[in-house]
Amino acid sequence: MLRWAWITWLRSKSSVRSTLILLVTLTFLLSTLASVASGARSAIERDVLNAGGLTQIDLSSIETGYSVRELNAENLRKARGMEHVAKVVPDYISSIYTQSSDPHTPTFDLTTHSWRPSTRPSLVRGEVPQPLKPGQLVLPSSGSGVDFNRYVGEELPVAYTRATGEHSGTPAHTTFEVVATYDPEWQLDGPDTAYAAPKTAAMLAAAKAGMPPKRYRSTTGATSAVLSVTEQQYVPTVVEKLQRMGFSASPVADRVRNLPGVLGAADLGYQVGILVLLAVAVLTGLSNARSSIHSRLSELAVLRILGNSLGGLRRILLGEAMLTGVLAGVIGSAVGFSGALLLRGSLERLLGLEVSMTDMLPNPLWGLAVVLTPIIGLVIGALFGGGVALRRDPYLLARSQS
């Protein structure tokens, strides 16, 4: 019957064959979403969780819907004093830029962040001391058109803004030691980011706000912070206590379960998409089986004359559906994975993490499901559609219409 199904499928101009493009397109989209979500999840799990992320908690001073505790010195001290908390590293955001208009001085403008436990870029040159000391910087190997590799181990003259009024400021000058550079493709905190010790980052942010560092830490406070717990088992307990105290707190591990932004949509999309693909395949198989029988009534009548039973005709319809499903599943999945590989560079820039080709491979069970879904859907549709359409013998029906 498979041989007859292959012959009739090749010769057929029915809707069963014409829907191949539709199912390939849907399978392609589903495979691409699954591969992108898999790549993001694998990269975050490897580079964030394996770097101690399982024992880390994110604190934020920005939350919508309800008020949260500010991450000022007093509140950070309360968080640091909780049971099972090892340390709290606040993140202060500001900027540094070119010191003068000297044409021989490199022109740059970099955003500054605190070096935190979750900060693990791919280093290009130099080493990051543990801990990073005040007055030291970790820079991208290239940023704002400047090659910073040549400054590793040297002092870099920079300027930062010191506020003189509500909407005015003046450049202040200093030098920092560049201890290391990292791959600029890593952009956890955005492009052109310089990392400094929390004390240095707070000084830069305080100057921009026109305050002494101590007052800035006590009033405005940090934008976010990373809290490290002594053991992974205590993370849920500490998160619950922090939330009861009014902190916006979430485990770093949630970054794996809840992918950010469009990646979260991709993660949800392929899980919902597989149900959509199955529904479309079933409905298409049902419709195609019925229309195929009516459009090829004379051919099926000839097969009945040649000795084929009604069960044999049903098997031919199922064989055609299987052929269409196999082609849709295999072609759509292969092209979808290839398309996801083309998005790997954009995914790395979005995450600020390295994503390997093997990371893009979806879970084997999900990959198998993507391939089998159009096959199963079309077979189910053809089984029910063919059963209804073949209630009357095609030979007798053809004779009655002649």
UniProtKB/TrEMBL annotation:
It is found in: Cell membrane. This is Putative ABC transport system permease protein. The chain crosses the membrane at residues 268-286, 321-345, 365-390. It is a multi-pass membrane protein. It holds the Pfam family FtsX. Residues 274-384 form the ABC3 transporter permease C-terminal domain. Residues 119-139 are annotated as: Disordered. It comes from the Bacteria. It comes from Actinopolyspora alba. GO terms for cellular component: plasma membrane protein complex. InterPro entries: ABC3_permease_C, Lipoprotein-release_system. Keywords: Cell membrane, Membrane, Transmembrane, Transmembrane helix. GO terms for biological process: lipoprotein localization to outer membrane. Belongs to the ABC-4 integral membrane protein family. LolC/E subfamily. The keyword Transmembrane applies.
